[in-house]
């Protein structure tokens, strides 16, 4: 997997048990993200077009937080996957849940949460309202990013910390419909012990840009693997069901 060196802001490739401790970012994509190619081809010029992107500022902010917390490496999906390589993209999608799980910490950047960190404790009702309305809770890929990491901290638009998954587990459960026993830190129930249909149901109110990703983003949550075939549309879910039936003796899948 590719990781960003948080001191040098450059990519380094690691394999197997050679992967160092790293922080990982969960976020919603915007229109101005930095790709793998753009990040690897950065020039040192201060007026470089890439460094003026909002996506680049998000990368540097996440790396700065990781460095502050003592992590020499970080992983961010926008620039750590070469999406022009179908083999690398397939490996990344099938591995992503485990990459989030083995991370040391997951930072969630809520780009539409504007309440200042100093106001959070004083305006609990407003916090709850703004938190519930965050786009992060509506995106398909963010479901596995919520479930996989051991530790998760939330940051507002200005990259000020506003809470952690453990203390916010009841509120997150109410927003998502996911049982709190799965969300508390450490969880009281393993994700894989829950019925398949229940896990799939958590995706019900979420969206992805591409219809296939509604199925692909469930792979880690359901602990199955399959190749990516962008362009197959709803057939992705049929293939997912086939993989589930090969692995589980769980009749709840027929609810879908």
From TrEMBL:
Pfam family, one: DUF8212
Domain DUF8212, first and last residues per copy: 235-256
InterPro entries in the record: DUF8212 (IPR058525), HET (IPR010730)
Positions of the Heterokaryon incompatibility domain: 22-116
Name this polypeptide is given: HET-domain-containing protein
């Amino acid at each position: 997997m590719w990781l960003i060196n948080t001191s040098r802001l450059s990519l380094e490739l690691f394999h197997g048990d050679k992967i160092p401790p790293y922080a990982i970012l969960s976020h919603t994509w915007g229109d101005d993200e930095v790709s793998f190619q753009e990040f690897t081809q950065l020039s040192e010029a201060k007026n470089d077009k890439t460094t003026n992107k909002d996506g680049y500022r998000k990368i540097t902010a996440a790396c700065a937080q990781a460095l502050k917390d003592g992590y020499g490496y970080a992983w961010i999906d926008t620039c750590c996957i070469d999406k022009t390589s179908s083999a690398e993209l397939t490996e990344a999608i099938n591995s992503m849940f485990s990459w989030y799980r083995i991370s040391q910490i997951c930072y969630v950047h809520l780009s539409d949460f504007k309440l200042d960190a100093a106001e959070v404790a004083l305006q609990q009702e407003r916090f709850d309202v703004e938190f519930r309305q965050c786009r992060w809770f509506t995106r398909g890929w963010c479901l596995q990013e919520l479930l996989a990491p051991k530790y998760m901290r939330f940051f507002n638009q200005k990259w000020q910390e506003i809470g952690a998954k453990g203390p916010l587990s009841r509120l997150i459960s109410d927003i998502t419909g996911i049982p709190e026993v799965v969300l508390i830190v450490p969880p009281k129930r393993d994700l894989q012990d829950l019925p398949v249909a229940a896990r799939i149901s958590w995706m019900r109110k979420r969206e992805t840009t591409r219809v296939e990703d509604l199925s692909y983003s469930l792979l880690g949550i359901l602990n199955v693997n399959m190749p990516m075939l962008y362009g197959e549309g709803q057939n992705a879910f049929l293939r997912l069901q086939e993989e589930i039936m090969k692995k589980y003796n769980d009749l709840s899948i027929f609810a879908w």
